[in-house]
Amino acid sequence: MNAILSIREALGSLVANKLRSSLTILGIVIGVAAVIAMTAIGRGATSSVTSSIEGIGTNLISISSGPSAGTPVTDFRSIKQLTLSDAEALANTAAAPAVEAVAPIISSTFTVTYESTDSSTSVTGVTPAYQTVRNATLSEGSFITSEEVSSRALVAVIGSDTAKTLFGSATGAVGKVIRISGQQFHVIGVLTAKGGTTSSSDDVVLIPITTAQTRLMRRMVTGEVDSIQVKATSADTVTQAVQQVTNILSLRHGDKVGSEDFTVRTQAEILSTAQSITGVLTIFLGGIAGISLVVGGIGIMNIMLVSVTERTKEIGLRKALGARQRDILGQFLTESALLGLVGGVIGVVVAWLITTAVQAIAAASSTSITPQFGIDSILLATIFSMAVGVVFGLYPANRAAKLQPVDALRFE
Predict the structure, then answer these.
(1) Do 226 and 354 sit in the same domain of this protein?
(2) Mean pLDDT computed over 138-146
């Protein structure tokens, strides 16, 4: 049978049963839309996380207390906390020439208040080197200086989201006074918004590390810090910087090689981990969405079986007039493939509408996610929807093709 004629007859048959065809197509539409939308949103989330991490810098090294996973520990009491003196030792360019800057950090969550507005925000004690290490820029005002660290000044640099929450705007915050744990801090600067889906650097209050130690977190005596962040001189010297940092801290802490009581992680490792997690989630969500495609395929098979039963006499008449088995098989396969194709095309449109809505909702909630449509996922979902139609239509079509003309004409 001519292919064009088969398509015309298949369309005529589907149009003759509009409601039934529409309901069958709906299952495919849901499946295709879900697969494409989940994939696009997953890719967008991956891109957002990646850009967030890369925005900090690819030559960033993070050091935290405690051994890395898999490192044997015989006595947890022997683990030494990181201190300000550790950070000072790492900043020695003679001992660590691959290190450009070192920023010790202590952090905790406090309620930050401006007039009658409260916000539970991360308050972080930093040194001036933090700006260099984290590639931080200011939209207005100035950053914390060495003099303010020495004098334990009550000053703060706040994130753009914090400014919006407290003052209603990210501009005009400099000079205002906020309260943290009952103490007044003068806002001297506002960080430029970075966005992203990671723990937000836009919702933070930075204060001098000495102020945090003495007035908020009471760590002046021990000198302990939560972490130390190091910036290598370039992305090419990260490996050297890691080795130099490890050697210095191991010597200071009296650690043996392979049993360090601290963990050193590079930005590349963090980026790789984040991409792996979001990649697995994208595949997982796409797989779940793909189940609905299979359900839609079962719907096609069900409807085609009903169609074969209803058109038994028609099949017998065609065979009696000379139609071959492959003609009947091709006719029913064409109908099921068309159901899958039409459902796939509509599903692409619905997926675009879904991702547009998700992007709008994300923007309204200050979350930077831009769904990424890939031509590969669109083609794959559309072709797969056609394949589902063909595969699940094969049994009904084969059943129709094998009907004997005499039995079919006699069917009531």
Answers:
(1) no
(2) 93
Specify which residues 15 forms β-bridges with.
none
Name the amino acid, one letter, at 228.
I
Are the CB atoms for 380 and 348 separated by under 8 Å?
no
- Identity (one letter) of the amino acid at 347? G
CB atoms within 10 A of CB 25: 27
Please give the Cα distance from 299 to 24 (Å, whole number): 6
343-373 pLDDT tens trace: 888 888 888 888 888 888 877 766 667 777 7
Judge if 279 and 313 occupy the same domain. Answer: yes
Rounded to 5 degrees, what angle do the CA atoms 267, 371, 359 make? 110
320 and 393 inside one domain: yes
Residue 75, CB-side half-sphere exposure with 13 Å CA sphere: 4
User: Three-state DSSP class for 322?
Assistant: coil
What is the total count of domains within the chain? 2
The answer to whether the CB of 4 falls within 8 A of the CB of 262 is no
Does the residue 60 lie in any domain? no
Taking the C-alpha atoms of residue 124 and residue 130, their distance in angstroms, rounded to an integer, is: 11
The span from the CA of 393 to the CA of 43, in Å, is 33
